[in-house]
Design a protein that fits this description.
heterotrimer; A alpha/beta; B alpha/beta; C alpha/beta; A: alpha/beta; Rossmann fold; 12% strand; globular; C: alpha/beta; 2 domains; 7-stranded mixed beta sheet; 6-stranded mixed beta sheet; 13 helices; 18 strands; 39% helix
Chain lengths: 331, 547, 409
C-alpha cells in the first residue's frame, strides 16, 4: 500500500486534510473522531515530535487492526511522559517493562496470542533510539531474526533525552550532547554518523522496513498501514525532532524533520525482504544548513573551526542523495 | 483533579486515558489564537471585493459557483465586465507569486460573471424601500456602481446619462475586442432589473433642479474629454483624438484612418487606439511616447498585447510637428530625475492619421454655475471619507473626482459614495474604512501548497486578433476555473486544511466540523507553536499568555 | 506409573502437562536438558497449544515470558547461574508487575571464576527479586513443585522459581512417578489473571511511580508476600491430598530416628543439635545423620522448602527449643557467612538457639557424609564456631606451574 496522492485541492498530499477532500482521501489524523490513542494530558515537552508521531502511528495501527492492538513500550521519554501513575495517556492495552526489552516483551505477547488462537489481535512495540539502537538492539535483532509477528517502531530523537540529553549510538556527527561536549579538537560526537538502524533492520531481511518523519503524515500513515497488512517482523524508523535535546524552537519540530528529508540527511525509504523498494524523492532541495542551523547542538559548526564538521554533513547528504537517488537522477 | 495521593493498584496498573486528569495547559507561556487577516488581494482591490471569499466558494466546484458570484457582486455588480477589463491589481499583490505565479483572479472573476449571465442569476433583491430618491449623474462604472449599491440599500435611484447608451467609458472608451458589448449590456440590464432607472440621452443641466427633485445627487460624469496639446500642424494634417476614435467605433461609426497611423501618448487609451487602428485597416500603427518602457503608464499586459498585434512603439520621442502625412519626431533623453528633454535631433515619420492620446479631462460643464462645488486640479474636490462635495447632499465619485482613473477604482468609489449617501440620508456618521492587518507572505508556510501552474487563458493568435473586434481572451472552463481558484492560498484565513488539528502533539485542538473550523483546548495546549508554524495560510497567532 | 527418568526430563514433562502457553529457551548448563526436552515435545505436539520461542538471551527469555504472561498465557522458562543474573532486571520487573511466571533454576555457581557446578549463589543473588523460591530436595519433588508453583504463583500473582541443584538433580536419574496430564488438569486451575493485556478491557501496565506512591506499592507487594506462606502451605496440603506424597511444604520435618520426611514429626528438643538445609543436600543428610543418632548425638533435621517467602514461623515451630542450630549453606555472603544462615538467624532472633553456619558444596564440591557428621559432632561438643567452610583445604588453591602465568603477562 503506498501513499494515496491527493489531487491538487488548494493543498495536496502534504497537508493533514482539507475541506475539499472526499471521504477516501482523508488522512486518519484529519478525522474529528480519530482514535487519539495517545491522548491529551501527557507530559511530553512542548513541541515533542515523538508524542506526535506516536499518536499518528498508534492511531493508524489501531484503525488498521480494527481496534485489536496491544502495545509494548520501552523505557524512555515516551513511556515516562505518558504513564506517570496514576495517569495513563494511552487508550489501547499497553505495557511497559524495561528499557532494553520492548521487542522481547512484544514477542511474548504475540506468542501468547498465537497460542490462544487470537491471531486477529496485533502487536506493536515501540521505543526510542536508546531502547532500540543501543541497549535494546539485541532484543530487536532477536525479534527480527525469529520473524516474530511484531511491528517495531523506533522514534529516533538521536540521544538519551529523558536522562538529560546524553549521547546514544544514534547521535549524529558532531552533535553536542551532555556526554559529547562541544569542546576539544573534535567537538561534539567525534566519530561516525550514528548507527543506521534502518540498514541493520534491512540486513535481517525481514518482510518490511521503512523510515518516515512527522513532516509527511500521509507517508507515515501509509507505511503503518502497509506494515499492519503484513505479518512477521516489521520495522518502522521515525525521525522525531526533540526541541529540548536538539536546542531548537518548539514550533520548529516539523520544519526540522522536513529539512532533514529535503537536505538528504534523512532518507525516507521502504524495503521489503532486505531489498530497497521505495525512496521518497526530495521535493524542494534544502541545504544542510537549513537543518543544522536552527539546532543549538550544532551551534559550534557555525563558529570558527566548524568547517570540517559542516563538510562531514554535506558529504553525508551527498552520499545519501547518491546512494538512494534522492533527486531521482537515475530514474 | 489529581489523584496522586490515592493508594496504588497492584503493579501500578491504571485505566486508559486517565491522563485527562492532568491539565498541561498550565505550562503554556504563549497561546495560539485563530485570526482572520486581510489578504493582499482584497487590500489591493479598489472595488473592495472579498476575493479570498469568492475564490473559496469557487473552490467547491459547481455547487459553489452561485455562492461565489453572490459574494463577488456584493461589492461589484460587473464581474463579467471587470473579469475582462480590470488591470487586476489584486494579482500583483497576490502572495502566490512567491510560490509559483499569482492566482489568475481576474480569469475566475470573468468565469463567474459569464456563468451568472449564462444561468441568468439575478442580483439580490433590494432592501425595503427607504422612500428616498437619489440621482446619479452619469452611467459609467462609478455611476452604475453607486446606483446599484444605493438601490440595494433600498433607495429609489435614477441614473441620467447624456449619451445614447449607458456604460460610460466601459462602452465608449474600451474597444469591443476587450469587452463585447452584449456582456456590458447584460450586466447593466441586470442592474436595471433591481429597479434602477437609467435615462439615456438625458443630460443633467442644472444641479439646483436636480436637488429639488432628489434627496441626494451623486456626480459621476467621468473624464471623457480629450486633453489637448499644441502641436504645430498644417491644414492638410489629419489629427484626431484617440478617445473620439474609440467612441466612434463603439457607436458604430468606424472612421477611416488610413494605412499608417501614429498614436501620441503612452497610456492605455494609446494602446487601445493603436490596436483599434490595426483593426480599422492600418498596416502600420506606431505609438510615439516620450519616455521609456519603465515609465509608461499603460498596463504592461496592454503594451504586450499591442506589440503582439504588430503595434510598434517609438520610445523617447515627441511629435514636434505634423504636416500632411509627415510627422516630425524629436528624440528625447532623460535627465537624472527621469524627466524627458528634447535633444534637438529630429526624424520623420509618415502617418495618414495622428491620434492624440495624451490624457483626458473631467467633464465639469454641469458645475459652471455652481461655485460651492469646488474644483481642484481639474476634478471635483470631495471629503476623502464621505465623498461629499462642497455642497451638502451632492457627492462625487469616479474619474470626475480625485483618484486613480480605472474602472475598478470607480466601482469601489461608487460603492463608497452609495454608503456615504445612505449614511447622510439617515443622518449617520459614515465610519472610516477599517484598517486591516495584512496576511503578508512571510506568515505563510507555502510548503503545503502543491506546485500548480497558473492556467493561462488561451490567447487567440495575434494574427487573428487584428482582423476584427472579436474578443481577444477566451474564458476559463469550469474545471480550470475551479483549479485556478484552488490555487488561492487563503492568506490569513483558515480554510480547514486540518494541519493544526492533525499536528498538535498534545491532541489539544478540537475540530468543529465542516465550515466550523477548530478551537484550541486551552486545558491541554502547551503553547508549542507547531500549529502556527505549520498553518499554511498564517491564520494562527502566538500571543503571550497572561495569567 | 513409576518410571526411570533423568531429573530434567521429569521436570520438562511435568511442565508440559501444566499446559504453558509460551515456553522460552536459551541454553545454559545445567538447565539445558529441560528446554531441549520441551523443544522436542513442542515439535511432536506433546506440548500442544504452546509457543516455543528460541530467544537470543536469558534477558529476552524473561522478557518474552513477561509479555506472554501479561497477555494472559501461562509462561515458563528455565535458567541457571550467569543466565539468571543476565536476566536479573527482568526478574525483578516480572515480580513488580505481578506476573506469575514459573522458572526452573538449575542452581549453579556464579563466576568469576567461571564454574558450571552446583551451589545456590545464583538464586540467592536474587533473593529480594520478589519471586517465590521453592527448593527441591529430590527429583520427585522437583517435578511436583512445578505443579504447586504454577498454582500458588497464579493465585498470588507472584512469579515462582523452582530451584533444583544443577547436575546433582538435573542430570541424575531416579525412579519417579510423574503427575499425569489428567491429574494436573484436575488439580491446577485454569490461568485466569485478574489483569491482562486485553483489547476488550484495555489497561496500562507498568506505569512510573513517583515518591508519593512507590512506598505504598512496595508495601502492597510485601503484604502479598506475607500471604504467600499460607497459600503455599495450602497448595502443598492439597497436593498431598491429591497425590499422596509430600511436596512443597514451607519446611520439611524428619523423624528423629530414621530421618524420614514426616509432616507430623515432633519439633526438636532443647538439647538437640538441629541441622537446617535446603535442596538435595537434605538427601545426603538423611543418609549421614542416623549414624550420629546411634553414637548418641541428639541430631535432628529440618529442611527449608520455601526460601522465599522465608517461613520463619514454621521454622521456629519445627526447631522447638533446639539450642544448637547448624545451617548447611550452599552460598556464601562474603565477609559474613552463609546466606541461608542470615535468614535463619533473623527468624531465631530473640530465641536461645545458637546458629552455626557451615558453608558447603560451593561450585560443585562434593559434600561428604563424614564431613557433615564431623561438624554436627563438634556442634554438639560446643566446639563449632559461628562459620565454617566445609572441607576447606588449608593452604588455599593450588599454585600454577612455575612460568605458567608469565605467558599471560
Amino acid at each position: 500500500m503506498s501513499v494515496v496522492h491527493i489531487p491538487f485541492l488548494q493543498t495536496g498530499t502534504l497537508a493533514v486534510g482539507g475541506r475539499l477532500l472526499s471521504e477516501d482521501e482523508r488522512s486518519l489524523q484529519s478525522q474529528a473522531d480519530r482514535p487519539s490513542s495517545l491522548t491529551k494530558g501527557h507530559r511530553a515537552c512542548q513541541g515533542c515530535a515523538e508524542a506526535l508521531a506516536a499518536r499518528w502511528v498508534m492511531d493508524t495501527a489501531v484503525e488498521a487492526s480494527g481496534g485489536r492492538l496491544i502495545v509494548a513500550n520501552a523505557t524512555g521519554c515516551l513511556e515516562v511522559f505518558s504513564t506517570l501513575y496514576p495517569e495513563s495517556a494511552w487508550k489501547p492495552p499497553w505495557i511497559h517493562s524495561l528499557f532494553a526489552n520492548a521487542a522481547a516483551v512484544a514477542t511474548g505477547i504475540a506468542s501468547a496470542l498465537h497460542a490462544q488462537g487470537r491471531d486477529d489481535v496485533r502487536v506493536l512495540a515501540q521505543g526510542g533510539d536508546g531502547g532500540t539502537v543501543d541497549i535494546g538492539l539485541a532484543a530487536v535483532s532477536g525479534m527480527f531474526e525469529r520473524n516474530d509477528d511484531v511491528l517495531y517502531v523506533c522514534y529516533d530523537n538521536q540521544g538519551y533525552m529523558n536522562t538529560g540529553v546524553q549521547r546514544s549510538s544514534a547521535t549524529p556527527a558532531a552533535a553536542r550532547t551532555a556526554t559529547t561536549p562541544a569542546v576539544g579538537r573534535s567537538p561534539g560526537q567525534a566519530f561516525g554518523q550514528g548507527k543506521s538502524m534502518v540498514k541493520i533492520a534491512m540486513a535481517h531481511e525481514i518482510p518490511y522496513v521503512a523510515s518516515a518523519t512527522p513532516a509527511d503524515l500521509r507517508d507515515l500513515e501509509a507505511k503503518v498501514r502497509t506494515a499492519m497488512a503484513m505479518h512477521g517482523a516489521r520495522y518502522l524508523h521515525v525521525l522525531v525532532p526533540c526541541p529540548v535535546g536538539w536546542g531548537s524552537e518548539s514550533s520548529q519540530s516539523i520544519a526540522l524533520a522536513r529539512a532533514a528529508v529535503q537536505s538528504g540527511i534523512f532518507p525516507v525509504i521502504e524495503a521489503r525482504a532486505g531489498e530497497l523498494t521505495e525512496v521518497q524523492r526530495i521535493r524542494e532541495r534544502a541545504d544542510v544548513e537549513e537543518y543544522l542551523r536552527p539546532q543549538a547542538r550544532f551551534a559550534h559548526l557555525f563558529k570558527p573551526g566548524g568547517d570540517d564538521a559542516l563538510a562531514r554533513w554535506r558529504a553525508l547528504a551527498e552520499a545519501n542523495i547518491r546512494r538512494y537517488d534522492l533527486l531521482g537522477e537515475r530514474s | 483533579m489529581n489523584d496522586h495521593d490515592a493508594p496504588p493498584t497492584v503493579g501500578l496498573s491504571t485505566g486508559p486515558a486517565t491522563s485527562l486528569a492532568y491539565h498541561t495547559g498550565t505550562w503554556r507561556t504563549e497561546r495560539p489564537v485563530y485570526v482572520e487577516l486581510a489578504p493582499p488581494c482584497s487590500l489591493g482591490c479598489p472595488s473592495g471585493e472579498d476575493i479570498r471569499g469568492w475564490l473559496g466558494s469557487t473552490q467547491e466546484g459547481e455547487a459553489g459557483f452561485e455562492t461565489a458570484w453572490r459574494r463577488l457582486v456584493a461589492a461589484n455588480p460587473f464581474p463579467a465586465v471587470m473579469g475582462r477589463i480590470c488591470y487586476h491589481p489584486c494579482q500583483e499583490a497576490c502572495n502566490r507569486a512567491e510560490v509559483d505565479e499569482e492566482v489568475g483572479i481576474n480569469a475566475v472573476e470573468r468565469f463567474l460573471g459569464d456563468t451568472a449571465l449564462e444561468k441568468g442569476w439575478a442580483l439580490p433583491a433590494p432592501a425595503a424601500s427607504s422612500g428616498r430618491r437619489v440621482l446619479v449623474v452619469g452611467s459609467g462604472p462609478a455611476g452604475l456602481s453607486a446606483a446599484y449599491h444605493l438601490r440595494q440599500l433600498g433607495h429609489e435611484v435614477t441614473v441620467r446619462e447624456a449619451a445614447a447608451e449607458p456604460g460610460g467609458m466601459m462602452r465608449y472608451g474600451i474597444p469591443a475586442y476587450r469587452l463585447p458589448r452584449e456582456v456590458l449590456a447584460a450586466e447593466i440590464r441586470r442592474i436595471e432589473a433591481t429597479g434602477v432607472a437609467i435615462e439615456c440621452s438625458t443630460p443633467v443641466l442644472s444641479l439646483d433642479e436636480a436637488q429639488a427633485r432628489f434627496d441626494a445627487v451623486v456626480l459621476t460624469m467621468g473624464a471623457g474629454v480629450a486633453h489637448h496639446v499644441d502641436i504645430p500642424a498644417g491644414a492638410a494634417s489629419h489629427i484626431v483624438d484617440a478617445i473620439d476614435v474609440l467612441r466612434d467605433v463603439a457607436s458604430g461609426h468606424a472612421p477611416l484612418v488610413g494605412r499608417r497611423v501614429a498614436v501620441y501618448g503612452g497610456g492605455n487609451t494609446a494602446m487601445d487606439a493603436a490596436r483599434t487602428a490595426r483593426r480599422l485597416g492600418a498596416s502600420d500603427a506606431v505609438v510615439v511616447y516620450r519616455r521609456t518602457r519603465e515609465q509608461m503608464p499603460a498596463h504592461p499586459t496592454e503594451l504586450d498585447d499591442a506589440v503582439g498585434e504588430g503595434v510598434r512603439v517609438q520610445w523617447l520621442s515627441t511629435i514636434a510637428a505634423v504636416e500632411g502625412p509627415h510627422v516630425t519626431i524629436e528624440k528625447m533623453s532623460l535627465d537624472e530625475e527621469g524627466r524627458p528633454h528634447g535633444t534637438g535631433e529630429f526624424e520623420e515619420l509618415d502617418a495618414d492619421t495622428v491620434m492624440l492620446a495624451v490624457g483626458q479631462d473631467a467633464d465639469l460643464s454641469l458645475l459652471a454655475e455652481v461655485p460651492d462645488v469646488t474644483v481642484a486640479s481639474g476634478v471635483i474636490a470631495v471629503d476623502p471619507v464621505t465623498l461629499m462635495t462642497g455642497r451638502e447632499g451632492v457627492f462625487a465619485a469616479g474619474d470626475v473626482s480625485p483618484g486613480s482613473r480605472t474602472a475598478t477604482y470607480a466601482i469601489g468609489r461608487g460603492a463608497r459614495a452609495a454608503r456615504a449617501v445612505d449614511a447622510w440620508l439617515a443622518a449617520r456618521v459614515l465610519p472610516a474604512e477599517p484598517v486591516s492587518r495584512e496576511a503578508s507572505a512571510d506568515r505563510l508556510n507555502t510548503w503545503y501548497y502543491s506546485d500548480a501552474p497558473k492556467q493561462h487563458r488561451a490567447e487567440l493568435a495575434a494574427a487573428r486578433r487584428v482582423t476584427g473586434f472579436e474578443e481577444v481572451l477566451t474564458g476559463l472552463d469550469a474545471e480550470h476555473a475551479v483549479f485556478e481558484a484552488r490555487r488561492c492560498m487563503s492568506c490569513g484565513s483558515c480554510f480547514e486544511c486540518d494541519n493544526c488539528f492533525g499536528m498538535c502533539p498534545d491532541d489539544a485542538i478540537r475540530k468543529l466540523g465542516p465550515g466550523m473550523r477548530y478551537e484550541v483546548d486551552y486545558d491541554y495546549c502547551k503553547g508549542c507553536g507547531i500549529c502556527a508554524a505549520e498553518c499554511p495560510c498564517g491564520a494562527i497567532d502566538m500571543i503571550p499568555e497572561v495569567r | 506409573m513409576r518410571e526411570v527418568l533423568e531429573g530434567s526430563q521429569a521436570v520438562a514433562r511435568t511442565v508440559a502437562r501444566c499446559r504453558p502457553g509460551v515456553v522460552c529457551a536459551y541454553p545454559i548448563s545445567p538447565q539445558t536438558h529441560i528446554v531441549e526436552a520441551l523443544s522436542a515435545m513442542a515439535r511432536t505436539g506433546e506440548l500442544a497449544d504452546c509457543e516455543y520461542v528460541n530467544v537470543e538471551s536469558e534477558f529476552s527469555a524473561m522478557s518474552v515470558s513477561i509479555g506472554a504472561s501479561a497477555a494472559g498465557s501461562r509462561a515458563y522458562t528455565a535458567t541457571a547461574s550467569q543466565g539468571l543474573l543476565y536476566m536479573a532486571e527482568a526478574v525483578f520487573n516480572a515480580a513488580g508487575m505481578g506476573l506469575p511466571i514459573v522458572m526452573t533454576v538449575a542452581n549453579r555457581a556464579i563466576g568469576a571464576p567461571i564454574n558450571i557446578w552446583n551451589d545456590h549463589s545464583d538464586a540467592m543473588a536474587l533473593r529480594d527479586s520478589g519471586w517465590l523460591q521453592l527448593y527441591a530436595a529430590d527429583n520427585q519433588e522437583a517435578a511436583d513443585l512445578h505443579v504447586i508453583a504454577f498454582a500458588a504463583a497464579e493465585e498470588l500473582e507472584i512469579p515462582a522459581m523452582v530451584c533444583m541443584d544443577g547436575f546433582v538433580l538435573t542430570h541424575a536419574t531416579d525412579v519417579l512417578e510423574l503427575p499425569t496430564a489428567a491429574q494436573i488438569d484436575a488439580f491446577l486451575p485454569r490461568f485466569a489473571p485478574r489483569q491482562a493485556l486485553d483489547i476488550d478491557h484495555p489497561t496500562t501496565i507498568g506505569t512510573m511511580a513517583g515518591p508519593e506512591s512507590f512506598t505504598e506499592t512496595k508495601y502492597l507487594q510485601h503484604r502479598r508476600f506475607l500471604d504467600a506462606a499460607g497459600v503455599l502451605a495450602a497448595w502443598s496440603e492439597r497436593f498431598h491430598e491429591a497425590f499422596g506424597r509430600e511436596a512443597g511444604g514451607l519446611v520439611s520435618r524428619y523423624t528423629p530416628d530414621t530421618l524420614d520426611r514426616a509432616r507430623d514429626a515432633a519439633p526438636a528438643d532443647d538439647g538437640d543439635v538441629t541441622v537446617i538445609a535446603m535442596g538435595s543436600v537434605l538427601g545426603t543428610l538423611q543418609a549421614a545423620l542416623p549414624a550420629l543418632r546411634a553414637e548418641g548425638v541428639p541430631v535432628r533435621l529440618v529442611g527449608i522448602g520455601s526460601y522465599r517467602p522465608f517461613p520463619a514461623e514454621a521454622l521456629r515451630a519445627a526447631l522447638g527449643g533446639s539450642r544448637h542450630v547448624v545451617v548447611i549453606d550452599r552460598a556464601l555472603e562474603l565477609g559474613s557467612g552463609g546466606v541461608l544462615t542470615g535468614d535463619v538467624g533473623r527468624a531465631l532472633a530473640g530465641t536461645r538457639s545458637r546458629v552455626h553456619s557451615v558453608v558447603a558444596g560451593l561450585g560443585g564440591r562434593p559434600i561428604l557424609e563424614e564431613s557433615l557428621r564431623a561438624v554436627v559432632r563438634r556442634a554438639h561438643a560446643g566446639q563449632l564456631g559461628p562459620l565454617e567452610l566445609l572441607d576447606l583445604k588449608e593452604g588455599g588453591v593450588p599454585v600454577p606451574h612455575e612460568g605458567a602465568t608469565e605467558v599471560h603477562r
